[in-house]
């Protein structure tokens, strides 16, 4: 077994003014509580695996990818406890999907199978370059991150997506084909934001993307004080 995390996540936190820590997996709740005693916010990253459909009350369907049940169980446990503590939470790609499931939402298990009219969401070219536009909703937390509403260019590396948005969340951005690209908590006292793309890979090519990490770090710092 090994831990494997793209350095871009930690680099983005550092560039946003934060201090990143990587949390080893455990199924010991007391250890998870100790982790959360020592951090000010939680970043759930993406990865090349899917969330078990049983987590949102469904059975597997054609197109479902590889599962990493141990990692998902740990991330769900730490996510739910972080939300209970009102820690700021940022979910990236698969982390956004997990956030939606944690709030009681569901997922499209495979876009190509379930939404055949949708555009391809797994780009083949350099992931530091954009793939398609999204539309950011006005007066959303995401708009605050980016400095305003409107169109933003994003990369795209996913084959699953949000289907039913979880209670307590809203969709704050979508792609032209209707695929949900961002979700966030409606609670004023909870920073919980999920984005379907990878802003940490586009900090130099689409500079406004750093704002997502900056606001997350800012809210974490406020929470600590």
Description:
By secondary structure, the protein is an alpha+beta fold. It has a single domain, classed as Class I glutamine amidotransferase (GATase) domain (Rossmann fold, 3-Layer(aba) Sandwich), CATH 3.40.50. 30% of the residues lie in helices and 16% in strands. The chain is built from seven helices and nine strands. The strands form two sheets. A seven-stranded mixed beta sheet has the order 1-2-9-8-7-4-5. A two-stranded antiparallel sheet has the order 3-6. A hairpin with a 6-residue loop joins strand 8 and strand 9. Helix 2 packs across helix 3. The model has no long low-confidence stretch (mean pLDDT 96).
Q: Residue share in helices? A: 25-40%
The amount of beta strand, in percent, is 15-25%
Mean pLDDT across the residues is 96
- How many separate domains make up the residues? 1
Q: In whole angstroms, how far apart are the ends?
A: 37 Å
Question: What would you say about this model in short?
Answer:
The protein is an alpha+beta fold and 225 residues long. Helix content is 30%, strand content 16%.
Key structural traits:
Rossmann fold, 9 strands, two-stranded antiparallel ribbon, 7-stranded mixed β-sheet, alpha+beta, 225 residues, 7 helices, globular
């Amino acid at each position: 077994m090994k831990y494997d995390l793209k350095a871009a996540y930690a680099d983005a936190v550092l560039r946003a003014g934060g201090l990143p820590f990587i949390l080893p997996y455990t199924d010991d709740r007391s250890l998870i509580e100790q982790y959360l005693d020592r951090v000010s916010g939680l970043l759930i990253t993406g990865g090349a695996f899917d969330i078990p459909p049983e987590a949102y009350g469904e059975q597997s369907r054609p197109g479902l990818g590889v599962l990493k049940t141990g990692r998902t169980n740990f991330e769900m446990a730490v996510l739910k406890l972080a939300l209970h503590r009102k820690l700021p939470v940022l979910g990236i790609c698969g982390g956004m999907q997990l956030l939606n499931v944690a709030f009681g939402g569901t997922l499209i298990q495979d876009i190509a199978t379930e939404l055949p009219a949708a555009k391809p969401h797994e780009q083949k070219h350099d992931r530091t370059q954009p793939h398609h536009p999204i539309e950011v909703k006005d007066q959303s937390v995401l708009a605050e991150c980016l400095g305003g509403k409107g169109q933003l260019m994003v990369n795209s590396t996913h084959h699953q997506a949000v289907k039913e948005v979880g209670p307590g969340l809203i969709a704050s951005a979508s792609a032209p084909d209707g695929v949900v690209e961002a979700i966030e908590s409606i609670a004023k006292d909870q920073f919980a934001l999920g984005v379907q793309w990878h802003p940490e890979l586009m900090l130099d090519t689409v500079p406004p993307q750093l704002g997502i990490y900056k606001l997350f770090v800012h809210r974490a710092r406020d929470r600590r004080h």
